[in-house]
Amino acid sequence: MPMFGLADVNSFYASCEALFRPDLRGKSIVVLSNNDGCVIARNAGAKALGIKMGVPWFQIKNHSYREKVHVFSSNYALYHSLSQRVMIALEEITPRVEQYSIDEMFLDLTGIDSCEDFEHFGRRLREHVLNTVGLPIGVGIGQTKTLAKSAQWASKEWKQFHGVLALTPDNPKRTTTLLENQPVEEIWGVGRKIGKRLNLMGIKNALQLAQSNPRFVRDNFSVVLERTVRELNGESCIPFEELPSSKQQIICSRSFGERITSKEAMRQALCQYAVRAAEKLRGEHQFCRHIGIFIRTSPHAVNEVYYGNSAGEKLVLPTHDTRDIIEVVMRSLERIWLDGRRYMKAGVALDDFTPNGVTQLSLFDEHKPREKSAQLMNALDGINQSGLGDVWFAGQGVNTAWKMKREMLSPAWTTCWNDIPIARIK
DNA sequence: TCTGGGGTCCTAGGACCC
DNA sequence: TCTGGGGTCCTAGGACCC
Asked: Which residues make Cβ contacts (< 8 Å) with residue A108, sequence separation at least 6?
């Protein structure tokens, strides 16, 4: 019988910010989204102050608790590197780990119980990560991914579990009690919309959903929710996936630090996103056959008519060449750009991948692939990843006002030599 | 004045085919 | 009065995740 674990770092971004700042132990911390837009992470202290997830920063920055809370811009270089460390620490103890998100890993714990009690294992894991990386994790264990998620949720919700909870078939009463106490919107796979609809039908907790007829759920909702019902009953439908699956789509988009009003600035921004998207594409060892862009003004602005539009092209030849991607992006912008708008956000999306650039060329095909494209892109990526130099495309521009706002950024403690933490002994 | 970014999967509907 | 049916492919949009 399969058994799944879920390890989740507590208040991940906030915990990362505290890791190299011993002076912040026990203080309230929040982390803001890109552009210092809204709150995307809070530690226990910040939650206790009543700071809600997702609130816009400008709404609370003059609040009376402002003095008590330490605020940070998102520092993804730091979070990614610490996420890797957690992953490595988990792999030292668990044979198979699936990285599910930046702060969550599924664990294949099948058969572990032949030598160790599940909860004992979970506690050992927790201590190991705390000792080697310094970050606190919670561990949930169950017969399906959904049950492991529910267990992890409960391990946070009730203090007596101390961050580790196992739902095992030999104690069905425990599972029933947990599900009875879990509101339906807290189940993995049930969001706000479906949660509301379920509530209207009188299905308010996870146990009620688990006891619903799967056929009824499929007909009235979807096969996705039917799967959730089955998973809540211990029937594993979502498999463990150790190898990261290859991407179907790559998106690079940002809100601007300042509104963009000139086409030239928009060209620079899109050019930069195109360069980054192309790098990611090559990192995936893929070629794309579709390139798209979108631009939009702020949907929140009063006294302004909202404008949002997208455009793109299907390619005859798959590409991973930055020059091709920039070309299409610029042509697409010509088709949807409108003067006189204050643009807030734009992005580049690559789609429809194939593992190589070679397709059957017809004898009379006018479209010829670029010569030496792969070598040039290789050289470019090599230089930019070496840390020794920086090569960029003329269209990208330098140091412009629309660039992301990050006024409260912490140092890149783990990824930049200049920022390495220094310990002083008194 | 100020509201994240990056993904996945599924479904419905239209175009087209025989 | 009559106006098939079934299949595929594509796209847009909606739901979800963190």
From this structure: A2, A3, A4, A5, A94, A95, A96, A97, A98, A240, A242
The chain-wide mean pLDDT, for chain A, equals 91
Q: How far is the CA of A192 from the C1' of C18 (A)?
A: 15
Interval A189-205 mean pLDDT? 94
In chain A, CATH 3.30.70.270 covers 9-145+406-425
Nucleotides in chain C with any atom closer than 7 Å to protein CB: 11, 14-18
List the one residue out of A36, A80, A64, A19 whose CA is nearest residue A408.
A36
Nearest nt (C1') to A194 (CA)?
C15
Nucleotides of B under 7 A from a protein CB: 1-11
Instruction: For strands A69-73 and A28-32, give the pairing.
Output: parallel
pLDDT at A362: 52
**Closest nucleotide to A193, Cα to C1':** C15
CATH 3.30.70.270 fits A9-145+406-425, yes or no: yes
Tell me: pLDDT of A366 over 70.
no
Class of domain A250-355+374-388: alpha beta
Instruction: Give the distance, in angstroms, between residue A314 CA and nucleotide C6 C1'.
Output: 30
